[in-house]
Amino acid sequence: MIERQSSGRLADGDREALNRLLGVPGMAWFVARVRGRILAAGDEPLSGVVQLNEPTAEQRAGAMRLVGRAKRAGSTLRVDLADAEEILRRGPWPAGLADAVETLTGPVVDRRAERAREAAEWVAARDGLAPVAVRFPGLIDWWNEWCAAGGLKRAARAEAVRNSGTPSPVVGADLVSKLAAVLEILPASGEPIALLSRRAVGDAHGLDASRPLGRLAATVARAAFMPDVAIADGEFAPPRDAWAAAGVVLSNLASTVLCLGVPGISPTGAGTCGQSPRAATATSLEAMRAARMPVLLTLEQVRSGGVRAAPRGSVIHICENPTVVEVVAGRWAQSTAGASGVDSPVLVCTSGQPSTAVVELLKRLAGDGAECRYHGDFDWAGLRIARYLSEQVAWVPWRFSAADYREAAESGMPSRRLLGNSAESPWDPELAIAMTECGLAVEEEAVTNLLAQDVLVEKVS
Asked: By C-alpha distance, which of 138, 128, 134, 153 is closest to 223?
């Protein structure tokens, strides 16, 4: 935008006289031509000639009121801008012709310069994350690509709508500043998201999923802490999973783990008096184990201290899908083996991407040296889930090798076409190769019978 000293203030000129000279219909063509030259002139007085072919009588009269009668008649109307400039400056509008036109029609904006300035401001807003993003391998490249695809602008637009404002780089920069404050204190150690939010941005609800900042932060947390997790159907992993990977829990009650046969601490253990959370959790675990029924533990219950570690030399089986737990529980309930005690199986289900409750339960169960064995879906998402879990808890494959996959895929078990981006299988590199060659996905439910047999046979004697 061209800024001028007077900016069309009434004190600098006679607005009524200006309206009579330039604000009439017969001078609209002249005003339009002048506007087209203002940017090129900058702060210098306008010069040169503008002309109009086949002018009407009204247009000739308007020009004559401004600069006087034309020196020679003809079919073309010509107005010397230097003459118009001089007349206005010594007459009704000392600020000059350009200022007069902008006063009548509004500021002349350099759209190209405006776009360049705005683009530079968006780049500056984007770069506000760089100092903290360098802590996370590959995050800055992902972030730049995501912003280039319009991600930050969409987030800023949503934030502006929430505050009844206008989307702008300023809004984007504010979001990035708050996002950087969140990343600065990640990873957390099982901190509830409300407390993390209050600590990072001063608002306990700032990272709620209903807030643009909350959705933005969950997206970036996924990129920082789950870079290898598949994006299904173009959507990111659920916020719960992304936050869990960053050590943040959406809620101690919302983070849960489905399990079977998990032992509770002994009633004679220290701190088990009364109805403390620890004693209550231990009692309920032992009751459900005696009934051979699955239980859904909250993170708060896992952390209560009521879970007893499995003894060294025992096995903790881990599956990905709840169906396996359901089948094992049903068969265990119908079996004639001991109803409770050290010979009961221990089965933990991740229910997809492991929650904080899943990870903490496994760590507590395996704390005395019990071995964790894992099985999941034979698809790319399943491999990524398995790899993520291996970064949290040590486990050995349970019917989850290349040989197991080939046997399942070639035996006519239910399968589907393998889709999506490939993943690695560090526990058995040949598994990913076999899956690529075969091109089939075998869901865990297809081998549930085999898994149930393993769980119910492999108990501590």
From this structure: 138
Q: Give the CB-side neighbour count of residue 15, counting CA atoms within 13 A.
A: 10
Residue 5 lies in a domain: no
Whole-model pTM? Answer: 0.60
**Pairing status of strand 440-441 against strand 416-417:** antiparallel
Residue 235 DSSP label: B
Quick check: 353 and 229 in contact, CB under 8 A? yes
Query: What is the per-residue pLDDT across 20-69, written as a single tens digit (0 to 9) for each?
Result: 999 899 999 999 999 888 888 777 888 899 999 999 999 999 999 998 88
Look at residues 133, 131, 253 and name the one whose alpha carbon lies nearest to residue 194.
253
Residue 406 near residue 430 (C-beta atoms within 8 A): no
Tell me: do 435 and 395 sit in the same domain. Answer: yes
Same domain, 260 and 385: yes
Encoded amino acid at 176, one letter: V
- Determine the distance from the C-alpha atom of residue 281 to the mean position of all C-alpha atoms in its chain, rounded to a whole number: 36
With residues binned 3-state (H G I as helix, E B as strand, rest as coil), the percentages for the chain, rounded to 5, are 50, 10, 40
Tell me whether strands 256-260 and 295-298 are parallel, antiparallel or unpaired. antiparallel
In contact, 264 and 310? CB cutoff 8 Å: no
The arithmetic mean of pLDDT across residues 59-81, rounded, is 85
